[in-house]
Amino acid sequence: MEGYCFELITGPMSCGKTEELLRRIRRCIIAKKKVKVFSPDVDTRSGGDYIESRNGLWLDAIKVKHSIEILSLVKDVQVVAIDELQFFDTNIVPVINELMKQGKRVIGTGLELDFKAEPFGSMPELMCIATKVDKLHAVCMKCGCDHATRTQRLIDGKPADKSSPLIMIGGDETYEARCIKCYELPDIKKKAKNLGLKLLQFNK
Ligand SMILES: [Zn+2]
After folding, report:
1. Distance (Å, rounded) from C-alpha 105 to C-alpha 125?
2. What CATH code is assigned to 1-136?
3. Which of 51-60, 84-93, 187-196 is predicted with the least confidence, judged by mean pLDDT?
């Protein structure tokens, strides 16, 4: 595609979204297109101003706090790549619409579901305005099947319950891709009720 389009690459963690984004960007560079890569300021996976896929490929990226900033930074470019779209503010939807209208090719990645298997940030709207959506699957870290579509949060090795915060700071949390059969989301409040237990923190 040559422009006026928005290609969205989505799926759970470890499905190769960033790897696929980097593959498309490399092809744009070979074709001598002017490319700029953006990532949200909240992404903590990579330390510096670059995006990195889990297989070690990386590319320089401009970190932005507000999605609106992107518009003033892409005057001279033909291809706008945006990583981790789920972390941007809601203005990302009109911003991408505007970039398309200007004739740019926009390529984005984002987690479609959070650890609670609920739509993440503006991803539902972005999937609607995209001209092409690729849903990638990961390998399930529990059963090894090829159809992992969920992102499992583990705290101290155990599935995190529904009440844990969306973005956690500190704590020993890890994530793994899981298929729908292996994905677990314990509802600790319900469990406690069923058992007739009175958990102190839920009695406030
Ligand atoms: Zn599985």
Report:
1. 18
2. 3.40.50.300
3. 51-60
2, 106 contact by CB (below 8 A): no
3 state DSSP class of 9: strand
The CATH architecture to which 139-204 belongs is 2-Layer Sandwich (3.30)
Q: 179-198 as b/e, with b when 16 or more CB fall inside 10 Å?
A: beebbeeeeeeeeeeeeeee
Q: What element of type H or E holds 173?
A: strand 173-178
CA of 177 to the centre of ligand 1 (A): 9
Catalytic residue among 7, 52, 84, 176: 84
Q: How confident is the model at residue 157 (pLDDT cuts 50, 70, 90)?
A: confident
pLDDT digits (tens, 9 = 90+) for 20-31: 999 999 999 999
Cα 143 to ligand 1 centre (Å)? 4
Does residue 84 carry a catalytic annotation? Answer: yes
Within the chain, all domains assigned CATH 3.30.60.20 are found at 139-204
Q: Which stretches does DSSP call E strand in 20-98? A: 35-40, 50-52, 58-60, 62-64, 79-82
Tell which wins on pLDDT, 144 or 174.
144
Distance (angstroms) between ligand 1 centre and the Cα of 14 equals 14
pLDDT, tens digit, 9 for 90 and up, residues 89-104: 999 999 999 999 999 9
Q: Is the pLDDT of residue 43 over 60?
A: no
